[in-house]
Amino acid sequence: MSDTTEIPSTQRARPETLLLNRPRQATAATLDALAQADRTDHFIRRDNRVFAGTHLIIEVMEGSGLDCEKRIQDAFCRAAELCGATLLHIHTHRFSPQGVSGVAVLGESHITVHTWPEIGYGAFDVFMCGDCDPWKAVEVFKQAFDTEDIAVRELLRGAELLSGAAP
Question: Which pLDDT does position 4 carry in this prediction?
Answer without folding.
Answer: 45
